[in-house]
Write a structure and sequence with these properties.
Mean pLDDT: 97
Shape: globular
Number of helices: 10
Number of strands: 17
Low-confidence stretches: none
Amino acid sequence: MDKIIERFKKYIAIDTKSDENSSTCPSTSGQLELGDLLVEELKELGLEDVRQDENGYVYATLKSNTNKKVPTIGFISHLDTSPDLDGKCTNPRIFIYEGGDIKLNEQYSITEKEFPFLKDLVGKEFITTDGTTLLGADDKAGISAIMDAMEYLIKHPEIKHGDIKIGFTPDEEIGRGADLFDVKGFNADFAYTVDGGPVGELEYENFNAASVKIEIQGKNVHPGTAKNIMVNSLRIAMEIENMLPINEKPEYTEGYEGFYLLDEITGNIDHTVVNYIIRDHCKEKFERKKEDFRKIVDFLNDKYGNIITIEIKDSYYNMREKIEPHMEIIELAKKSMIELGIQPIIQPIRGGTDGARLSYMGLPCPNIFTGGYNFHGRFEFIPTESMKLASELIVKIIENNAK
């Protein structure tokens, strides 16, 4: 079995799903376990300055093997997996996909109807789950590709390169991955997160993001005598949802279209808490969406008598603003893909990435593919060839960066 697949299987067997309800960093002990393993492997490979800090971040350096002055480049992936499902994948399936639906277990299948892109992958070797857990390709495929690329460079010293910085972050899936990243200590001129999807993805635009928390204080009395007295906070929550544009919900949007997402609602007649997230690539539309919520709350407070409070917090911003002054980073990745026979797919991320936050922290950091599909669910899978191509791309970027 290829070394990269052996690594991947070892990493996905460790449950590293993050926990947004935890106040620690990392939020779960499994991330420390994987970090410890990676520290040992990085040392065995021969990288230097290898460490896992008190917050679970793993750093390492592959030292330059050339006297030429070369920009220092970094590669970053995240240790955690999505909290949406069990993150310990100990029973992956590896097989050649011959077309049709893929039966994971008696209850779940990856179907051609739901995932029509399967027809383009016939003949590829797949790694899937058994339908009970995440696979963990997001982002253990990225970690595997980086580790594989480092081993290749060490075994092939004829490939000249400058200093290469490696970073593995905790808690990316709950939006904290860049919070305590040591940008100064990392000391790279630029970096790439290896956290994308299918082969060819190259992304330097992402959503502007905010969270919205709305609390509604109702008034509960016996329904038999409720006329002109009861104020049902659940119904007011429904009013808020119905006042938002129906065509700007996630299930109706794509490409550069932003959305409002009702993420969670808990409560009763007396008191209800509603949580939304706002996403938009355009800063002006993003600000408009936040203002829409404020106007809705003002209107309903006038109607019901100041019983609603709202809290809006920005989460991250579109990294395009920080990448565009450094488009040579994008051109380097494009050139490297083309030399490998890969067609670059430059598109906006309909989500966030550590790279967005890091770009605003002074480390320009676009995103490149891992090769995986269907992240965050039991239908996740990855063609092994795609993961190997991600490793080859890392090597090619490093090689071209030194020319």
